[in-house]
Design a protein that fits this description.
Length: 97
């Protein structure tokens, strides 16, 4: 375990938890309207129905992103050599989703 692995794993893990929670709440239309998490486009914030519909579409992608970040976090704690490629691919996949 390296210091970089611990720091990167912890940061990726925190981001994974946040994205998974927000993704699942959005997917199930239970994400409350707020100015911090969610899609902050004026058109989406016009009504509760638009908010729920937009987050039902975006929720699965956020959950997939959280899963990718979680995989990157788990591998980062024990990574050495070529395993850093898995961490990098997890981070890239998290950013893409």
């Amino acid at each position: 375990m390296t210091v970089i692995g611990i720091i990167l794993g912890t940061l990726c893990g925190i981001l994974a938890v946040v994205l998974l929670v927000v993704g699942v709440l959005g997917w199930t239309a239970k994400l409350p309207g707020n100015p911090i998490f969610g899609i902050r486009v004026p058109e989406v914030r016009k009504s509760k129905e638009l908010w729920d519909m937009a987050h039902r579409v975006a929720g699965p992608f956020w959950a997939l992103s959280g899963l990718a970040w979680a995989i990157a976090a788990l591998v980062a704690f024990t990574a050495s050599g070529w395993m850093w490629l898995v961490v990098g691919m997890g981070i890239i996949a998290g950013l893409v989703f």
